[in-house]
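PROTEIN–LIGAND DATA SHEET

This sheet pairs a single protein chain with one bound small molecule, coenzyme A, given as SMILES. Inputs appear in the order they were entered. The predicted three-dimensional arrangement of chain and ligand is reported afterwards as a token string under its own label.
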Amino acid sequence: MLVEFENMRHVAITAVGAHLPEEVVDNAWFVERYDTTDEWIRARSGIRFRRKLPDNEATSDLAVRAAKEILETRGLKPTDLDMIIIATVSMDHIYPSTGNLVQAKLGATGVPSYDVLAACTGFIYALVQGYSMVRCGMYDKVMVLGAEAMSRITNFDDRSTCFLFGDAAAGFLLEPSDEPGIVKLYLGSDGSKGDILCQKAGGSKYPATEERIRNKEHFLYMEGREVFKHAVRRMAQASDEVLERSGWTTDDVDLFFAHQANVRIVDSTVKHLKLDVSKNYATIETVGNTTSASIPYGMYAAYKEGRLKKGDKVLITAFGGGFTWGSGTIIWSI
Ligand SMILES: CC(C)(COP(=O)(O)OP(=O)(O)OC[C@H]1O[C@@H](n2cnc3c(N)ncnc32)[C@H](O)[C@@H]1OP(=O)(O)O)[C@@H](O)C(=O)NCCC(=O)NCCS
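PREDICTION REPORTED AS:
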């Protein structure tokens, strides 16, 4: 489904922020504990390092640091915000939402806040919501963050998934603009594939019991090979769709940010799109798959590095549990 509003305000990304926890977990950590090798992990996933948050912190603590950077760089007080949206699958609690906790920790008194749950596509879903609010004139300053403590929901008994994920938070401030910033956004889902990538227990269908906890049913479960096939197909299709609706071709794109699921998934998507590989910006080697934080963290890193400059045309795409997928075209405004 394409998200479109005609004759309304343009929406731009006007500030960025991110936070990575200090602790770095390298592949040697897994080699010491599992029947695996650094070569296998790198060849299958492209990952060398990921970050892990301290025991006394939770997802909201990562999100608050990213949020503070956004406020500071834009010279805003927390109460200047009109809305806080957090995409996450590793929320501090089922409720209150992580958005509510971030609102309180920031001191954004009275500012509405909530979470969006669309797994690795969560940030694009949240972006659609923030974009829509600004585009139609409902709000002027919407903060959209992706924040994850994946190390808290990873099943460390499953050697085929445990090395993939990392902790991070990153996001944007969205504001009205004279020039187009976010050009088009596109979303899709297929709930019939939900059990291939899920966190089964802990909700109303399978409430936590001793047995379910013993069976690790409250951790992330993934059939990697199946997910792989769908991820490439959906990210490529979503990218094609949003490019066409924007009147862009891959030649117009200056930088491409795919959800950092796995280097092979991203490389296959790039190949399908016939995109110049030099336009593919990757962070997976150093931070792993950070789920909802993956796309905004990539854009943050590219901007800080000087790779992403004002006026650059950006293509984003993601795929994740649900299944969910999405894409977007953006003209960078900072
Ligand atoms: C998880 C993933 C890296 C596994 O790679 P794969 O090539 O599909 O590997 P498989 O699970 O089919 O396992 C292949 C073999 O490696 C073995 N293996 C699994 N984990 C291993 C590890 N850590 N080290 C060494 N060998 C391992 C398996 O036992 C299997 O052995 P077998 O052939 O003798 O049975 C890959 O499927 C993947 O990245 N999928 C997408 C996941 C993703 O990115 N999800 C994010 C959500 S968007």
